Amino acid sequence: MNHFDYRDGALFCEDVSLEEIANTVGTPVYVYSSATLERHYRVFKEAFAPADPLVAYAVKANGNIAVIATLAKLGAGADTVSAGEIQRALAAGVPPEKIIFSGVGKTEAELAYAISVGVHQINIESIAELEMLERVTELHGQRAAIAIRINPDVGAGGHDKISTGKTDAKFGVSVADALALHARASKMKLIDAKGFAVHIGSQIKDLAPLESAFRVMRTLTETARAQGLSVDRLDLGGGLGVPYFNEPEPPSPADYAAMVRRVFDGLDVALSFEPGRLIAANAGVLVSRVIRIQDRPARRILVVDAAMNDLIRPAMYEAFHEIKPLVEARGDAREKMDVVGPICETGDTFTRGRDLPPLGPEDLVAFMTAGAYGAVMSSMYNARPLIPEVLVRGDRFDVVRRRWKLSEQLGLEKIPAW
After folding, report:
1. Alpha-helical segments (H) within 173-229
2. Contact 312, 389 (CB under 8 A)
3. 58 pairs with which residues across the strands?
């Protein structure tokens, strides 16, 4: 569910017209709904009641501090994959004891920063990383709580580039290596080996692979305990899919929670989850203005002012985003159009041959389900500025990231004296 709907023929975000935002702030512009963010977090959290797991929002999905703060006020933690994301989470009001630090490429400096602020847990993905963390803890005289991330050899996800659980993926260690790593970490002076972590992919629309991975986690926990190792926590990651309008409904958080309870019943372990897309995707849209129509012998091309540098998912993942006009279409007239942006690449194409209502120059459209992996993956390719982000609450809106100026981009560079 989201809070974007037509009222008297105009597309609204909660109680604010998207056209008003576009005319005030300019286009392209990302717009997020506070009500949708809050509802999605609550639905996920309440699915596990009366249990109270740590729900650590995956910052990589949408790292705007206003979005993170909206969720932090409800009690959300943060799943982070860089020191920068940890800083964002802290700036947004997430307590350090609710921050999980994941990722395969953590540097010594990042690990030192994570333990200095006292994050809840560092997910370890290799023996080399564990050895580095041991050196960092000894150098700084600070303890670190860890979980060993396993690779269960279970593939899932909406695209090969977001499937992370197969043996050939760069993430995690084998089950056998996880036991050895946990045993080794348990003997380290300043390392608290708390448990295990798993994350097999993103945009998962079937509970079966998740259940398979979780059953591996249960068996691993029982085996570790039988060997005298302590396992207090299991981090079950994220990945539950969201509807992108052209797809069947994915499993609900309630169905997901029921499966989790079935798998881990009686295990007596604290659980944590890392939903990102599930919370943010349908909470955001990208609003864009039509520049012109270009007719070709075999097709009609709609050129808009948003581009692949603003929303890269279609170019990178062949992803589908529903496109809605901000003025509701009247009648059944439709025409097949390619929708493209201004970037000087053929790859800057949002869709081909999409049935759309008649549109022309200056018309406004919204790319739906753009709240996750949208602005956070944007770039300044073709010297295009980073675009604004707007957060709506009820009948109010605020610009939570302003549009960059070219002078700011140039200010990061210089011409050498020679």
Report:
1. 175-186, 207-226
2. no
3. 79
Topology (CATH level 3) of domain 4-31+281-410: Lyase, Ornithine Decarboxylase; Chain A, domain 1 (2.40.37)
The three-class DSSP label of residue 343 is coil
Q: How far apart are CA 11 and CA 19, in angstroms?
A: 8
pLDDT tens, residue by residue, 58-108: 999 999 999 999 999 999 999 999 999 999 999 999 999 999 999 989 999
Instruction: Look at residues 278, 125, 311 and name the one whose alpha carbon lies nearest to residue 204.
Output: 278
Is there a contact between 198 and 204 (Cβ–Cβ < 8 Å)? no
Q: Which of 344, 412, 415, 417 is catalytic?
A: 344
Active site residue 344: yes
The answer to whether the peptide bond before residue 28 is cis (omega within 30 degrees of 0) is: yes
Dmax (CA) for the chain in angstroms is 72
CATH topology of domain 103-273: TIM Barrel (3.20.20)
d(CA 164, CA 149): 11
Tokens of 99: 């921050």
Reported as a single tens digit per residue, the pLDDT across 335-378 is 999 999 999 998 999 999 999 999 999 999 999 999 999 999 99
- Supply the pTM of this predicted model: 0.93
As a residue count, the chain comes to 418
Cβ-based burial of 308 (10 A; exposed 0-12, middle 13-18, buried ≥19): buried
